[in-house]
Amino acid sequence: MEYKNCSDEQLFELIKLGNANAFQFLYDRLFYPLLGQALRKVKLKEDAQDLTQDLFMNLWNKRDTIHIEGKVINFLFTSLRNSVINFYIKTKKQDEREELFQYFKGYCEETTDRTIHKNELEQIIQNEVDALPLKMKQIYLLSRNQELSHKEIAELMAISELTVKKQVANALKILKKKINYVLLTLI
Questions:
Q1: Which of 1, 19, 99, 174 could staple 14 via S-S, CB 3.0–4.6 A?
Q2: Is residue 44 located within the same domain as residue 68?
Q3: Which domain holds residue 48?
Q4: 160 in the same domain as 135
Q5: Domain RNA polymerase sigma factor 70 region 4 type: where (predicted)?
Q6: Burial of 164 (0-12, 13-18, 19+ CB in 10 A)
Q7: Which 8-state DSSP code applies to residue 19?
Q8: Of 47, 144, 60, 138, which Cα lies nearest the Cα of 94?
Q9: 45-85 pLDDT tens trace
Q10: Residue 136 · residue 171 · CB < 8 Å
Q11: 107-143 burial by CB neighbour count: b if 16+ within 10 A, else e?
């Protein structure tokens, strides 16, 4: 079969049937455009290659369960964007609670009793970060852990800078309010 005349969508239908040759042709056709996008979002070439390879590996491994509405290329670019966001969250450069600890630094002396409270506070902060709405949590972690600017986050997530700014401010407001309450009960 001559695959070069097939659309991406036709190739994907063949892939769903387990056609490895169709997969290889789609891979050869779309790998470099997707890799180029990944390279614009992550700093290291190896990371971009890994993200792109993983995307295709997941496409093949989950071909039976993936349902694509619309263009295959749009699905793959969206999946890649989500992978990049998850990559940034997983490879955090600093502790996600650092800013909040700075905010409450005056409360924590390094005595045994205070260390216990500090550990409890760390757990509470982690629980509160985990309880944030998903998109707000992602934006907060990209901002605080990855130290990405609002503009970089907006580009990465395909949203406006104003939305990013508001989400970060709302996350901090929620966290500070809950942490202040907890501190008052510990004092």
A1: 19
A2: yes
A3: 3-90
A4: yes
A5: 123-174
A6: buried
A7: -
A8: 144
A9: 999 999 999 999 999 999 999 988 889 999 999 999 988 88
A10: yes
A11: eeeeeeeeeebbeebeebbeebbeebeeebbbbbbbb
